[in-house]
Design goal:
The structure is a homodimer of 193-residue chains. Chain A is 28% helix and 34% strand. Chain A is α/β, with parallel strands linked by helices and 193 residues long. In chain A, the strands form three sheets. A six-stranded mixed sheet of chain A has the order 5-4-8-9-10-11, sandwiched between helices. Chains A and B meet through strand 3, helix 2, helix 3 and strand 5 of A and strand 3, helix 2, helix 3 and strand 5 of B. Strand 5 of chain A pairs antiparallel with strand 3 of chain B, so a sheet runs across the interface.
Chain lengths: 193, 193
């Protein structure tokens, strides 16, 4: 998606440790007009009328998922990273290792909001090693629901997540795929899509 | 806001410890059509053209803030509850005690996204003891920015937060104010607005 690639090129900062900072428009400050264009693009990429729910994970997936949901006319469920006093009853739980935070989280969805009738589009801001998405897929499958696809804003194509998921037959669509980035020059190379 | 009150009456669950569960539509599963009506109402309540940014806090404020931002044509910044490896440079930091999680968080906003030029509408899902909103106001004031108002989905009117903030001259508008709730009968009484 050219609009997103251009924005990453203009405002993205390449930091040591394979970190791409896009917090001026994607995951700290959020450009809602851009999110709307991304939402339209997700709908174009996943036109299936079967999709009846979007699943994301707190925190930075939520904004993108909510704006995108307007183009699908479906509710959003966000998986929670730690057990809240407000979550009780039956839950699906999985473990996710965060690339950014270097720690393992228990990730939880209430069984009330994910079930056999659900055809789920998973949305998240970043795909790197794929741990978060793999965990979300695990939650969907635990519920007996169907993963219709995975929509990602920025994929780090030089990490294994996207390749691994696609090799398992998961339909992954990333609006921008970074194939290389150079922390010295700041150069970012996108995969042709 | 009658639409929200009706929904809380229909789906809200009163739990021991003054907990009101509204996770079927507000803060776990999210009804985006309802969020749009809430966003319109926030714009009606805060018509000021000065508002150029919405500030919220992860995680459950983000969806409401992003949808509402469409009616204000402004970006959203969400305060982060713990230091991320991806946040560097100058930051504003405050401490917030969570009613739900019974713990104290460091809450952080990058100084790049909050400054003297900003007129900020704070949005969150719940207002109870007011700690989260007080922390967000502290962040805005640290940045030399102006708080134009506070928009809340559900205020627990029987806790002190709303009263405290209003007594300090902060304009707080809550779409539903619960004045009393009974965990035995499930009855919820709303303040007339």
């Amino acid at each position: 998606m050219k609009l997103l690639e251009d924005r990453i090129r203009r405002e993205g900062l390449v930091k040591p440790g394979n970190v791409l900072k896009v917090d001026s428009f994607l995951n700290h400050q959020m450009d809602i007009a851009l999110f709307n264009e991304m939402g339209k693009e997700f709908k174009r990429l996943f036109p299936s009328e079967k999709i009846n729910k979007i699943l994301t994970i707190e925190a930075s997936g939520i904004g993108i998922a909510c704006i995108a949901a307007q183009y699908f006319n479906v509710p959003v469920v966000f998986a929670k990273k730690s057990q809240s006093l407000n979550l009780d009853g039956e839950m699906y739980v999985t473990k996710i290792e965060s690339f950014t935070h270097k720690r393992v989280y228990d990730v939880i969805v209430s069984a009330k909001y994910l079930g056999q009738e659900d055809h789920v589009l998973i949305i998240d801001d970043f795909l790197a090693n794929g741990c978060a998405v793999a965990g979300l897929i695990d939650l969907v499958q635990s519920a007996g629901a169907v993963v219709e696809g995975v929509g990602i804003a920025v994929e780090k194509g030089f990490q294994e997540g996207g390749k691994l998921l696609r090799s398992k037959g998961v339909r992954v669509e990333s609006l921008a795929i970074v194939d290389a980035m150079d922390e010295r020059t700041g150069e970012i190379v996108f995969r042709k899509q």
